[in-house]
Amino acid sequence: MFYSKMVAEFTESVPCGAPGGNDVGETAGVLRQAPDGGHGLMNAIRVLVLEDSLIIAMEAEDMLRLTGVESIDIVGSVEQARAAIAAETYDFALLDVNLGEGMSFGFARHLLDIGIPFGFVSGYSDTGDFPPDLQHIPLLVKPFDETAMRDFLLRLFPAVA
């Protein structure tokens, strides 16, 4: 089962909103201030998030929704990610580098082969220790906030800027 189904079940049971009506934090407007005239940061419809930490994946999902992404599938392993891309079409993917069970570099190369854009998410602050053929891939450093996500997406899709 994809994490996104578990997330949907969980979020339906959690009341929304916070005192004062601000349920996403005061900086959430940063992502809504898109460079394309307010139509969202990008035109991506479906995104795959490969992340073994459900909390981090859910935070990324919230931020991606603020940019206009309509559908986000969260998976926790390379096997689930391979099954997801075999079943669905994705506009791009976010890949956690270290999945506990191993690294996501092999899957990243597969995405390159089939033409799905992607970026890495990692607690490591640079790509210097990544394989040489993947050092050019945009990196979102954990922990990240809305501004960091927006900057990362602009690096991933520079034509939007």
From TrEMBL:
Q: What PROSITE patterns is this protein classified in? A: RESPONSE_REGULATORY
Q: Which SMART domains match?
A: REC (SM00448)
What organism is this sequence from?
A: Rhizobium chutanense
**Name of the protein in question:** Response regulator
TM stretches of this protein? none
Q: Name one GO biological process term.
A: phosphorelay signal transduction system
- Domain (Response regulatory) ranges: 46-157
Query: Which residues get modified to 4-aspartylphosphate?
Result: 96
Keyword vocabulary terms for this entry: Phosphoprotein
Query: Known SUPFAM superfamilies for this protein?
Result: CheY-like
